[in-house]
Design a protein that fits this description.
about 475 residues, alpha/beta, Rossmann fold, N-(1-d-carboxylethyl)-l-norvaline Dehydrogenase, domain 2, 3 domains, two-stranded antiparallel sheet, 19 helices, 9 strands, binds 6-phosphogluconic acid
Length: about 475
């Protein structure tokens, strides 16, 4: 029997697209899908549809699938995150040999990945949690890949992963070994946190513009911006979405304003809270989705307003672009800071310049800005201290204020922009009012405080009632 270089389990949308990508790059591939319920014909249908690639062999029996793989086996699992991943691993384990490599390509929670990595390591198996970004199209033509796990295991799958990944402007693969354990899935999670805020900023711009401009005009504005420093995958698709029609109607105007989510944004926000990091923009974006989901309540409460409030103040388009760039700088800064903190805590040696480079193509947050960030990180890992970044933020502060005031005047919620502005104001304020918080804590709970009139870092208590 011929042996395949690579195995893939799970022929969902992403699994199929990745399979075609792998085969197209010249690797022999075995694919497996379960046959329960309405999945009985998935493997046969896929093999029939992909006759052009005779390097793909389909399997409905797990033992045969495993036997078809060259040693050490390299198996990519593309199933729903959570219990299905554990179910597949349990099925695989009795059939594998020590040294075999399991790659989880789903959006798994990084703490699950860490547990799986450690448990499998004890049994002699390699486990790579690999973030994959780019959706169906990216998976087919070149995604951005974020593999974690041991460097040694990565070295055995590097050739295939790098071959199927997107290529950056210098034709380097958008795939780099992120770090040990769950580092790959961690950065994919934060990628999505950044993605949430990037999407929300665009939604807030659309909300500010739509009382004054039609879809075509907003789309035109976004495509103008696409040619500038603000260009990005998300801006580009938003510009296209705005003018896509179903008959004579814009589809966007027919889509219910309730945003869903699959959890990576809230995991990122929870992680920020756990690590004590002020990742305010991604968190704001998650909450905005949650508020949007309260559609019935919103409709009901709106009825209590007798007179309709009209948007009266037209936003200044130049300010909008400046504010957008400002907010995106803060969003990326917050996201990378969260990665830095986690890397310290978990002992991951993450190269931020290389990570940003691997996000310049293939992934959902690829952008002109990301290409700049990849370069800025080469001269220091604190983005906000970079002279260019700092000057941009400083000089565009009035534009963000203008945008927020416009939103408030027109009763348009723009919390993600507000969070960017607020963060910038607070992070550049020498004396915040947290001295009062400390005094209150010490007053009612004897929680102690540090003093600003000594050089030591000792903690003090005041008997407030006796003073
Ligand atoms: C990507 C996307 C992808 C998926 C998100 C959507 O990088 O390709 O992030 O992973 O689209 O999981 O997440 P929500 O359903 O939570 O918006």
């Amino acid at each position: 029997m011929n042996v395949s270089a690579f195995g893939l389990i799970g022929l969902g949308v992403m699994g199929k697209s990745l399979s075609l990508n792998i085969a197209e790059k010249g690797f022999t591939l075995s694919v497996y899908n379960r046959t329960e319920g309405d999945e009985a014909h998935v493997v046969d249908d896929f093999i029939n549809d992909t006759e052009t690639f005779d390097s793909i062999s389909g399997f409905k029996n797990m033992e045969d699938f495993i036997r078809s793989l060259e040693s050490p086996r390299k198996i990519l699992i593309m199933v729903k995150s959570g219990p299905p991943v554990d179910a597949v691993i349990s099925q695989l384990k009795p059939l594998l040999d020590p040294g075999d490599i399991i790659i989880d390509g789903g959006n798994s929670y990084f703490k699950d990945t860490q547990e799986r990595y450690e448990a499998l390591k004890k049994e002699g198996f390699n486990f790579i949690g690999c973030g994959i970004s780019g959706g169906e199209e990216g998976a087919r033509t070149g995604p951005s890949l974020m593999p974690g796990g041991s460097a040694e295991a990565y070295s055995k799958v590097k050739t295939i992963l790098e071959a199927i990944a997107a290529k950056d402007a210098q034709q380097q693969p958008c795939c780099t070994h992120i770090g040990s354990g769950a580092a790959g899935h961690f950065v994919k999670m934060i990628h999505n946190g950044i993605e949430y805020a990037e999407m929300q900023l665009l939604a807030e711009l659309y909300a500010l513009l739509r009382p004054f401009y039609n879809n075509q005009a907003i789309s035109d504005l976004f495509s103008q911006w696409q040619q500038t420093r603000s260009g990005s995958f998300l801006l580009d698709i938003s510009s296209k979405i705005l003018i896509t029609k179903e008959g004579n109607t814009y589809i966007l105007d027919r889509i219910l304003d309730k945003a869903g989510n699959k959890g990576t944004g809230s995991w990122s926000s929870e992680t920020a809270l756990d690590l004590g990091q002020p990742s305010t923009m991604m968190t704001s974006a998650v909450f905005s989705r949650y508020i949007s989901a309260l559609k019935e309540k919103r409709v009901d409460l709106r009825k209590r307003f007798n007179n309709q409030t009209e948007s009266t103040q037209e936003p200044d388009l130049q300010s909008l672009e400046k504010a957008y760039y400002f907010a995106r700088l803060i969003n990326h800064y917050q996201g990378f800071e969260l990665i830095k903190e986690a890397a310290k805590l978990y002992g991951w040696n993450i190269n931020l310049a290389e990570l940003a480079r691997s996000w310049t193509r293939g992934c959902i947050i690829q952008s002109e800005l990301m290409s700049k960030i990849a370069i800025w990180f080469q001269s220091g890992d604190d983005l906000i201290k970079n002279d260019t970044v700092f000057e941009h933020l400083k000089s565009n502060e009035p534009a963000v204020l203008d945008l927020i005031q416009n939103g408030l005047a027109n009763r348009v919620p723009v919390d993600c922009f507000y969070q960017a502005y607020h963060f910038w104001i607070a992070i550049t304020t020498e004396n915040l009012s947290a001295n009062l918080i400390q005094a209150q804590r010490d007053y009612f709970g004897a929680h102690l405080y540090q003093r600003n009139d000594t050089q030591n870092s000792k903690f003090y208590h005041t008997n407030w009632l006796d003073s």
